[in-house]
Amino acid sequence: MASYEYKVIPAPTKGAKAPGLKTAEARFAATIEDTLNAQAAEGWEYLRTDILPSEERQGLTGSQTVYRTLMVFRRAKAGEDSSAGDVIQTAQDVAEAVSPSVDVGGPTRREPTLTPVQPSRGDPAPKPEEPDPDAPKPEGPEPDVPGPAEPAPTEPEQPDTPKPDAPDPETPKKD
Q1: Which residues of 143-155 are buried (b: 16+ CB within 10 A; e: fewer)?
Q2: What does DSSP assign to residue 83?
Q3: Which of 15, 57, 116, 130 could form a disulfide with 28 if both were Cys (CB 3.0 to 4.6 A apart)?
Q4: 73, exposed or middle or buried, with CB in 10 Å at 0-12, 13-18, 19+?
Q5: Vertex 64, ends 63 and 68: CA angle to 5°?
Q6: Are 111 and 47 in contact (CB under 8 A)?
Q7: CB 40 within 8 A of CB 27
């Protein structure tokens, strides 16, 4: 397990002036960003910001509680190996112990298997299988197979009888 050392600094309370930054929000954000980048350049990893109470003297005999905003950073102690290698090695050992059948050559890819889907209640009935044309035909009378469908007889059209909703074609149109 890795050991860390911590660094706590007061968080900026006011944004510093910077070229191109006109609003107080933008100046404050740039100041926080500069603080984080300066600590990261020294190897410190930002962990969190805390607000903690602090008692301070007020006047000659009194005291008051002031809340301070502090930024907490951490880094691994010098001289110790990074724990990332240990974590990776432990994960590999666990993976090998769980599935010892994996080849040393690398991970294998398992292809999904496709199984036929059984129709459920809402599915239409499956189509019947077509008979094999090379199979011998059964002896006996052939079953009645309906022939090609004949078109339905059409009713003869009535000569020039207007429909009740349609205007009479012989009536002149109004302009």
Answers
A1: eeeeeeeeeeeee
A2: H
A3: 15
A4: buried
A5: 130
A6: no
A7: no
Alpha-carbon gap, residue 33 to 18, rounded angstroms: 12
d(CA 112, CA 86): 34
Q: What is the pLDDT of residue 99?
A: 61
Q: Which amino acid is at 147?
A: G
Q: What pLDDT, in 10s, does the model give residues 104-148?
A: 556 667 777 777 766 666 666 666 677 677 776 667 666 665 666
Low-confidence ranges of the chain (pLDDT < 70): 1, 80-87, 97-108, 117-128, 131, 136-138, 140-175
Q: What is the dihedral of CA 84, 88, 90, 95, to 10 degrees?
A: 160
pLDDT of res. 9: 95
Work out whether strand 4-10 and strand 62-76 pair parallel, antiparallel, or are unpaired. Answer: antiparallel
Encoded tokens for 62 = 């009194």
Place of tokens 């005291």: 63
Six token digits for residue 21: 């930054």
pLDDT of residue 91: 74
Q: Contact, 45 vs 77, CB < 8 A?
A: no
Closest by CA position to 9, among listed 43, 50, 66: 50
The total number of residues written for the chain in this structure: 175
Amino acid at 157: E
